[in-house]
Amino acid sequence: MRNSLLININMTHAAAEAGIPRYFFSSSVCVYRDMEPGEPELSEEGAYPALPDNEYGWEKLYSERMALAYGRRYGLMIRIARFQNCYGPEGTWTGGREKAPAAICRKIAEAGDGGTIEAWGDGSAIRSYTYIDDMLEGIDLLMHSDIGVPVNIGCPQYVSVRELIDTAAEIAGKEISVQWIKGPVGVQSRNFSNDKIRSLGWRSRFSLKDGLALTYPWVAAQVQAGGRE
Q1: pLDDT per position in the chain (229 positions), as tens?
Q2: Minimal CA–CA distance to 51: which of 25, 67, 30?
Q3: DSSP reduced 3-state for 131
Q4: Where is 151: in which H helix or E strand?
Q5: CATH code for the domain in which residue 56 is found
Q6: What is the number of domains present in the chain?
Q7: Domain range holding 103?
């Protein structure tokens, strides 16, 4: 939390002092509270009253406000996107910092047909996974818009961790069993409105299956080559 806050504060301050006219801050849907599966979608304003489930979310929420305050004080054009689990080829895929899609792809690539992988929890947690191309298109539209408040960008397809694993295994052409183990699983679910970014003409073009079909072969190639990121 300390390191992230210092990075964000120093970056925003340096941009203001340098007279940068436009400043983008990549936030996260971790600013929202834990939600029940199937609960009505939250708009961006639903982040308040604030109740993030961990310090990462609190850091992001504070950094949003810091960026907006600098924008008002120095006349910067501030744009803020709240990301939902971005993934794709060329991303982090090992080492403990990777997102769930990359981690699952790696585990399945390492397992043989009929093998078993380990996953935290019981597979019921619900998430939305956004393919990198969709995310970049959303950022570009946001930066050229007049929306000066935080904006959700995410694929509206919500799936369980179990469904994520099944989809990746199908793409790999493998029968995979799962050993569910104790571990941090985060919130039960997060459901968000994308109305603000959709008002700019943005639409998610990649389903989870489409995105994993492009991501799994790349991750599998890294595993086969014995690479370590």
Answers
A1: 999 999 999 999 999 999 999 999 999 999 999 998 888 999 999 999 999 989 999 999 999 999 999 999 999 999 999 999 999 999 999 998 899 999 999 999 999 999 999 999 999 999 999 999 999 999 999 999 999 999 999 999 999 999 999 999 999 999 999 999 998 888 888 889 999 999 999 999 999 999 999 999 999 999 999 865 5
A2: 30
A3: strand
A4: strand 151-153
A5: 3.40.50.720
A6: 1
A7: 2-225
pLDDT score recorded for residue 186? 83
The answer to whether the Cα torsion of 104, 107, 113, 117 is positive or negative is negative
pTM: 0.92
Question: Residue 204, SS3?
Answer: coil
| Contacts with 166 (C-beta within 8 Å, 6 or more apart), sequence order | none
Which DSSP helix (H) or strand (E) runs through 12? Answer: helix 2-17
Give, in degrees to the nearest 5, the angle at Cα 42 between 41 and 43: 120
Residue 30 per-residue DSSP state: G
Place of tokens 């199937």: 38
Active-site residue, 131 included? no
Who contacts 74 (Cβ-Cβ below 8 Å, separation ≥6)? 16
From the candidates 56, 62, 74, 158, give the one annotated as an active-site residue.
56
Print burial letters for 72-103: b (CB count within 10 Å at least 16), e (below 16).
eebebebbbbbbbbbbbbebebbeeebbbbbb
Measured in degrees and rounded to the nearest 5, phi and psi for residue 206 equal -115, 120
The conformation of residue 29, written as its DSSP 8-state character, comes to G
